[in-house]
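thread: overnight batch results

M.L. [08:02]
morning all. the overnight job finished for the chain we discussed friday. pasting input first so we're all looking at the same thing
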Amino acid sequence: MLEEEKHRKEFLLKMYEQLCIENNRNIGFVVQSVSVIIGAFAILSLTEKKIIDMDIASILIILICTWFLRLILDSNYWYNRNLAMISNIEREFLLSSDLKDIHYYFAKPRAANSMLTNYRAQIWLGSGIAIIILLYHFLTRVLPGINEPWSNFEIQRCVPYIVTLVCICTLLKMQKKQKKKYEEFISQSPGKQQDFRGNDFDISQINYGAGHPVD
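M.L. [08:03]
and the structure it wrote out:
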């Protein structure tokens, strides 16, 4: 019994270490968020200096925001997948009573494409920057020329919006692919099946809520 308790404590310490590593990874993404903001302002400053025009600047910022959003989606997939793997390992060691004594997250995996609040905030940040840039481009490059004759039409004014549509399609396609990959992983590696009913903590009593979405 003493040896089993020793291994149990070692496992919990390893689990704690893994959670700390994941937290450090999340903190690292804050730096990337700042870099996106700095990059956007740096590109806009080039337009003020007449080095590049607003059309090119808008395209570059949209591409940077898309790259940033792809990183968030990819990181969120790996986070959910790794968390499912951790839960599977926990099922090998933790007891049904640990659903109450430690945490209940290992009872069921997170829902496909569920997103951390930190990642969700950065999705809003990247999307917000892109929307603001497009709005600024529309007000400065498109709206003033709406009443002008078609002979003055400049195709380059439309390019930022075409690029935006392409970027949105790639992001949606990536999100769909990540969702499918996660669902395949959960289906192929569901973890050790445990019957928590009839124990000192019934799984039916768990209300997962927003902290650990499972549906």
